[in-house]
Amino acid sequence: MNYAFSITIDGRAVEVQPGESVLAASRKLGLDIPTLCYLEKCGPLNSCQVCLVKINGKLVPSCGTKAAAGMMVESETTEVHEARRTALELLFSDHVGDCLSPCQRLCPLMLNIPVMLRHIQAGRLPEASATIRQALPLAGVLGRLCHHPCEQGCRRGQWDDPAAIREMEKVITDWERSSGYSPSGKAEGGKRKAETGPSILTPAAEAKTVAIIGAGPTGLAAAYYLTREGHAVTVVDRRAHAGGSLRDVPSAQLPAEVLDAEIAVLGRMGVEFKLGAELGNPLTLDGLGRGFDAILLAVGELAKDEAAELALPMVGAALRTDPNTCQTPLEKVFAAGSCVRVQKQIIKAMAEGRAAAECVNRFLRGQAARRPEKPFSSIMGRLDPAELKAFIRNSKSGGSVSPCDRCAGHTKQEAAAESARCLHCDCHSSGNCVLQHYAQVYGADANRFRSERRKFERQVQPGGIIFEPGKCILCGICVKLCEMAAEPLGLAFVGRGFDVRVAAPFDDTIERGLQKVADECVAQCPTGALVFVENGEH
Amino acid sequence: MSIDLNLTEEIVARVGRKPEALIPILQGLQERYGYLPEDALRRVCERTEIAPASVTGVASFYDMFRLKPVGKHIVRVCTGTACHVAGAERVEAALRRHLNIPSGADTDRDGEFTVEQVACLGCCTLAPVVKIGEMTFGHTTPERVPEMVREYLASQNGKKMVKSTEELSISRAGGAEIHVGLGSCCMAKGSDKLFHALAESASACGGSVTVKRVGCVGMCHRTPMIEVAQADKGSTLYADLTPAHARALVQKHFRPRGFVQHASRLWSRVLDGLLLDDSGEQRGVQRFAMSKRDPGVRAFLDKQVHIATEHFGKLDPLSLDEYVANGGFEALRKCLANAESGKRSADQDAVINSIEKSGVRGRGGAGFPTGQKWRVVAQQPGETKFVICNGDEGDPGAFMDRMILESFPFRVIEGLAIAAVAVGAHEGVFYIRHEYPLAVKRVRAAIEQMEKHGWLGTKLMGTHYPLKLSVFEGAGAFVCGEETALIASIEGKRGMPKLRPPFPAQEGLWGKPTLINNVETLALVPWIMRNGAEKFAAIGTTKSKGTKVFALAGKIKRGGLIEVPMGTTIREIVEEIGGGVADGRRFKAVQIGGPSGGCVPARLADTSVDYESLRDLGAIMGSGGLVVLDDTSCMVDIARYFLQFTQDQSCGKCTFCRIGTKRMLEILERLCAGKASRQHLEELERLAVQVGAGSLCGLGKTAPNPVLTTLRYFRDEYEAHLAGRCPAKKCAALIKYSINADCTGCTICSQHCPVDAIPMTPYSRHLIDDVKCTRCDTCRVVCPNQAVEVK
User: What is the complex's ipTM, to 2 decimals?
Assistant: First the structure.
C-alpha cells in the first residue's frame, strides 16, 4: 500500500502517508498531543506514555503507533486527558527538584530571583535590570519597601543568612538612576538606542483604552502590566502627584526622587496621567465608560461616604467584585486593591493590580476575564542536611555581605559577592521544560502521589554540564543519541524497574560519556536533568 | 583485588565477539569469578564489538549478575507465591539472624554467606524452599535453619559431593525396574540420594533389576517416590522414602543370587519386621507402599488426562531410544515427508491446518490461537525465520514448564521442530531461565544426542531439511517472558519490551519473522499430530480445547503437577485432586495465573477452568500456577506480595509500570501496616485501572489484576485493614502474640524464641515482650499446649 489514506481523529479526517504515526497525523490537524520521549531522529522510544490516544478501546502511545486506513482515534477526550495527566503526575512523583525556586514562588509578583542574582554575580547589570523590570512595576520602590517574603523562603537561610534579595533590587535600581540607564523599552525618537535596556513591551494586539482610577501601588501596577499588553492607559488621581499612599512614606525610607523616577518609567512606557482630577463631578463612571473601553477602580481604602458616591454595590466598606474576575456588576468596570480588600503589603497590593490587569486584558481581548494562573512548579520541599551541604559546597561560603559604606549600599563588587551566595536551587530549564509545560496545560497535580522522595543530587561537571539525576524521567533520548553517534563511552540505563538511572558506564562521569553529543543531549533533554552551567554560577 | 584476565580472554574466545554474545559472556565471567569484576568487563569491551554502555546496561538489568564480590556460600530464599504463603519471609529472617547478616546488607561481615531472594525456584509443592549452594531444602521453617546450615557445611567440609544423576550409563538389564522420579523438586527431597542407594543395593543384589531415572511423577506431596515395576507382579508405588530404606526395599522385591546376599536378605527382613512406625500400624518398608487403587492416589490421578505429560513417571528423560519406542518423532517425520528447504509444500500448510483445527491455544497465558500464530509467520515473506521455545517460566508459583523440559526434553524438541518445519524456519532457540539448571542441562543433552544421531543440524531426522537448535540461558528477569523482551535478551540487550505491533511474527529476532511458543504448547504438538486434531479438539470446552497442566500448590493436602482437561472446575481440582485444604482450615480462594492473574474466591469455585471463564472473573489462565489459599492467607497481603513482585520485575521503561506499580505498592504497604486511609484505598483503585490501561506491555497491563480481583471479591478484608485489623492474622503490624492460661510453664517457647522476647519462667505462665517480638510464629508452632494466641 503506497498511497495516502485517511484516518479519523476526534471525528476529523486527516490524510496520512503510509508509515506515518498517529502522532504525525494529529499534528497535521494542529492537535498538541504531549510528548516527552519522542524525537523524530530517534524514532519512537515509547517510554513516557504521555502521548496516549485511544484506538479500538485501548490506550496506545501515538508516537509509536502507525496510522492504518480507517483508523478511529480519540485524542482530546476526558478519558485520554486523564490518562495523560496521570502519566505526568506519576513522573512528578519521582521528580526531584523545584521548577521555580522557593524565593520566586513566594514572590507575589513571581520575580525570577536566581536569574537576577546570576546576572549580578556576573556583573551583567543591564540584564539584571531587565529581569527585574520584566516582573516588577516600581522596582525601585519595592527594593526599599518590600517586606521580602522571598528571603523567608531562601534555602541559604537554612544554613546561615538568606541572600539579601531586596537589597539587590535596590542596588540595580540605584545603579539605573545613577548611571542614567533607562529601563524603559520605549525608545526616544522612534529608534531604540543602544544604551537602553531590552524592551519590556509586548506588541499591542489591538489598541484599547483603559482608565485606571487611583495612582497608588495597585493602580500603577495595573497600568504597568496593561501598557505592556499594548493598551492605552490613563491613570486618574485626585492628588497632584502619582503614587497614592506611597507619597505618605517618610523620605528616609523612600526618597521622593526614587518614586518620581519610577513614575517616570511608567510615563516613558506611555502611561498617561490625569492628576488632580477627582471622581465625581464632572468625571463620572458613566462618562468614563463612554470614553474608555474599560475602567479599573483602584482608589484605595474607602470611607463610607466615598463609597456611597460611587453608587456601586458594597460589602461593608468595600466594593463588591467577583473574586475570580475583579469585575463589578457594571459592565467594563473592574475594581482591585484596598477598595476591595484592604492590602497591608505594597507588593500584595501590586499583585492585586497585576491580577486585575490580567482580567481587564482578557476582557479587552474578548476572552473571559480571569486572574493569571499560578505557574506550575514541582516542589521538592525542605532539604535534608546532607543535601543542603551539597548545595553549600557549590556556592560562595560565608554569611551575608554587608556594604562597606552603609549609606551608599552595596558596591557592584559587593553585590556580586552577595549574589554569589545564592544556591541556585531553581531549575535551569524552567520555562523551557516540556514536562513543566504540559503539567501546566493538563493541570497536573505534582503532589497527587505523595511518597518519600529520592535525595536531590547535582553533578556539576568541569566542562560545564550539570546533571541532576532526580529530574531525569528516563525518556531515553540521550541514551539513544549516544548509541546513534557511537559514543566511545556513551550513556546507559543502569539497573532495572523503579531504580533505573541514566549514567555513564563503569561509574564514569556524564561528561566522559558525552564526548560527541553533549550539546545535542542537553538541547533535547525534555526536563532540566541535563543543562549547561550558566554564566555566573559555580 | 587483581583478577586473572586470561579467564576473560578464554571466555570471549569461546563465546564470541558479536553484540549477541554479551549475556553468555557475562554468564561465563560470573561463573568463573563469582561476580562481574570491572576489569573483566572493560576487557570484554576492548576485545569485542560490545559497547561499554551495553555492558553496564545489561549487567545491571538481570538478577543473576552481581557487580560486587559475594560470600563464599550463596543462600537463595525462594519468594515464589507458594513459599510466600508458607512463610518464606520468616525463614529468611531466621537465616539472616542465624548467619549474622547486618540489616541492609546481603553478606555477613566475614564474607562467608550471602543471602538473596530468588523469584521462584519452581519447587512450589515443597514450600518454603531454600537453596544453600547446590543443596535444596524443602518445607523449611525458622527452627530448621541452624540444622540446614549445619547439614550444608558438613557436606562442604567432608567434600561429600552428591553424585550427579545426569551422566548415567543406564544398563538395560531387562525385567524388573525401579523408577525413581528425578525432577528437581524430587531431588530437593532427596530422590537423587535415594536413587544412588537403590542402585547400590540393586547391584549388590545382582543384576536382575534396573534402577531407572524417570521424569516428574506429579505427586510432589509424596516425594521421593518410586515405582517398582515387575512384569509378573504389576507395580507398587512407594512414597516418602529415604536412602536408609533402599536396601530393605530392594531385598523385599528381588531375590538375591549368592548365598551371602541371601542370608543378608533374610536377616534384614527380620530386622525390617521389627521396625515399627510411630503409630505402630504398619511395619517396615511396607508402610510406605501405596496402591494405585488407594483412594487418595485415585482421586489425584483419575481426573487427569496426560498429553503434555504423556508417559509421566515412565520415561527416562534422556533416553532417545525410549522416546522413539513410545511413538516419539513419528509426528515430526510425518510433517517432514515432503518438506525441503526454501520451498513451501502443501504438507507444511496441512500441519498448520491440523494445529488450527485442534483449537489449541497458547499455554503461556494469553491463549492466542496457536495455529493462527503459525500461519502468520508462515505467510511472512523472506527466507530467514526463527522459532523460539519460551521456557522463561517466571510466574512465581508455577513450574509446569520446568517439569516438562526436565522430564520430556525430546517431546518439546519435536514440537519445536514441527513448528519450524511448518513455518519454514531453520533455526530454533530454547530460551530457558537460568534458575532451572536441570532443565537447561537436559535440553542441551537431548539436543546433543540428536545431533550425534544426525537428526539435527543440516539434516533434520535425516531429511534434506536443515534445522539448528540451541539453548539460550536467561539471566533472571521475569519480563523476558514477554516476547519482545525475550527477543531483546537473545540479541544481547536489556530485556525491555517494545510496542506491538509490529508483532514478533512480523519483525522478531534480528528483525525477522519469529514464532514464539510456550513449552507446554509445543509439548502438545506431537500428540496432536500423532493422534489427530479431532481427538485433541474432543477434549475440553467449546473455545478452550485439550488439557492444561497446573502446578497445584499452596494450602492444600495433595500438591503436585497435574494435567486436566479444560473445563474441569476449580473445585474439582482443589477438593478432589488436591484433597482440599488442611483439616480445620477453610478453603478461601485460589490464586490463578500468577502476577498477571487474580484471586478467585471459593464461592466461585464451580467455575470451569477455561480461558473465557477465568477472564470473566478478572483472572487469567496464565501459565498454570494454581496456589490454594485458606483462611490463614490474607488477601491484602497477597495483593501486596504480587505488586512487590511485579514492581521488582518491572523493566523500568514506561511510566505507568515503573512508577505506577511502585505507588500502588506503597499504598498496599500502608494498608498492611494499618496506616492507610480511605483516600488511599480510592487512589489505589483508580491507579490500578490507569496502570492497567496505560502500560506499554503485558506485564504492566496485567500487574494490577491481583489488586483488582482482591478488591472485587475481598473488599471486606481491605476495609478491615483500614480499621487496623488483619482478619487472617498475617500482617505483622496488625497482630499481637500472647500466651494464655493454658501455659504450663514448660519453657519451650522461651528456648526457641530467636529474639529473646519470652523470658524463661519455669512452671509459671510465660509472657511475650511485645516490643521485642518479631511475629516469627515460632512460639506458636512449638508450644505443646496451644497456649500461644494471635490477636
Answer: 0.91
